[in-house]
């Protein structure tokens, strides 16, 4: 292993007791089979094992500075380490998720400009929930003014650039779904993308593309309501709007969320701290 210059190392954070496999670890009284890899790893660290990096060839590479920031956070997960090879170990200067997992995180857990800095998809789901509620209220309304009021609320939750006032979070289904679709594509193309990621990403991308088409149709239906001059025509458009919102929620976003959950589980990211 060349020494001196800073370089990157990819692999999975493990521990010196288990090395490349946690299946046969005697480190806890429960036995390895009762623990996830991450739980086993942290139990071994508690028993004075050391953090190591297991590379793609299952070589176990020691880590010189055990206090490097990020090692506990990424324990048991694929990572990219930046550092220098010193003696017989890596001196780590930076620990980060592999690029594919980083973009999955943007879809599901965190992004800088979303409400609460959450992932794009959960934001889209929450905004859609508001839109579904007000689409139903529009259907159940009997006056033209009330139908128009709730149509405006649906528009706000779908795209606050179209209607600024309303009960949505100010981000909108359209922007959140588009962000999720973009970063899912980044994940599928990024370093470290597995067959699991590319396979599930194709299905989720299809669902999100449908969502964006249905959002366009829902916005058009809501605009028809706002332009209506009689209750009957507004009520007909409200029924169309409610049906579209149900598709956006059930066939689009909920399906995407279910498949992303399967992706996270297969990648060992389900419930992982970030």
CATH architecture of the largest domain: Up-down Bundle
CATH topology of the largest domain: Four Helix Bundle (Hemerythrin (Met), subunit A)
- What is the 3D shape? elongated
Give the uncertain stretches in residue-range form: none
Radius of gyration: 24 Å
Counting structural domains, the number is 2
Mean pLDDT: 93
**Class by helix and strand content?**
alpha+beta
The protein's oligomeric status is: single chain
Query: Taking strands numbered 1, 2, ... along the chain, how are they ordered across the largest sheet?
Result: 3-2-1-4-5
Report the strand count: 5
Query: Describe the biggest sheet?
Result: 5 strands, antiparallel
Give a nutshell description of this structure.
By secondary structure, the protein is an alpha+beta fold.
Q: Would you write up a description of this structure?
A:
This protein is an alpha+beta fold and about 270 residues long. It has two domains: about 5-95, no CATH class; about 100-265, Four Helix Bundle (Hemerythrin (Met), subunit A), CATH 1.20.120. It has seven helices and five strands, in the order E-H-E-E-E-E-H-H-H-H-H-H. Strands 3-2-1-4-5 form a five-stranded antiparallel sheet. Strand 2 and strand 3 (about 60) form a beta hairpin. It starts with 6 loop residues before the first strand and ends in an 8-residue tail after the last helix. The mean pLDDT is about 95.
Topology diagram in text:
Elements (H helix, E strand, L loop, with lengths): L6 E9 L21 H10 L4 E4 L5 E3 L15 E9 L2 E9 L1 H10 L11 H21 L3 H15 L14 H17 L5 H33 L3 H36 L8
Antiparallel strand pairs: 1-2, 1-4, 2-3, 4-5
């Amino acid at each position: 292993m060349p020494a001196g210059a800073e370089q990157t190392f990819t692999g999975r954070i493990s521990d010196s007791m288990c090395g490349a496999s946690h299946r046969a670890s005697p480190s806890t009284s429960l036995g390895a089979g009762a623990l996830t890899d991450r739980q086993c790893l942290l139990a071994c660290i508690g028993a004075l094992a050391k953090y190591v990096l297991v590379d793609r060839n299952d070589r176990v590479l020691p880590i010189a500075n055990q206090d490097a920031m990020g090692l506990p956070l990424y324990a048991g997960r694929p990572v990219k380490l930046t550092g220098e090879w010193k003696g017989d170990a890596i001196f780590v200067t930076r620990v980060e998720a592999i690029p594919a997992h980083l973009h999955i995180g943007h879809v599901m857990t965190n992004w800088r400009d979303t409400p609460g800095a959450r992932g794009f998809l959960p934001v889209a789901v929450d905004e859609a929930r508001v839109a579904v509620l007000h689409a139903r209220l529009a259907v159940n309304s009997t006056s033209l003014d009330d139908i128009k009021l709730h149509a405006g609320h649906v528009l706000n939750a779908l795209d606050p650039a179209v209607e600024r006032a309303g009960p949505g979070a100010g981000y909108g289904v359209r922007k959140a779904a588009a962000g999720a679709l973009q970063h899912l594509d980044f994940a599928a193309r990024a370093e470290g993308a597995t067959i699991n990621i590319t396979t599930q990403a194709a299905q989720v991308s299809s669902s999100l593309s449908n969502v964006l088409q249905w959002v366009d149709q829902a916005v058009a239906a809501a605009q028809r309501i706002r332009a209506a001059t009689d209750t009957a025509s507004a009520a007909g458009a409200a029924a169309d709007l409610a049906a579209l919102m149900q598709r956006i929620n059930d066939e689009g976003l909920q399906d995407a969320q279910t498949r992303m959950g399967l992706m996270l589980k297969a990648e060992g990211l389900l419930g992982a701290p970030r």
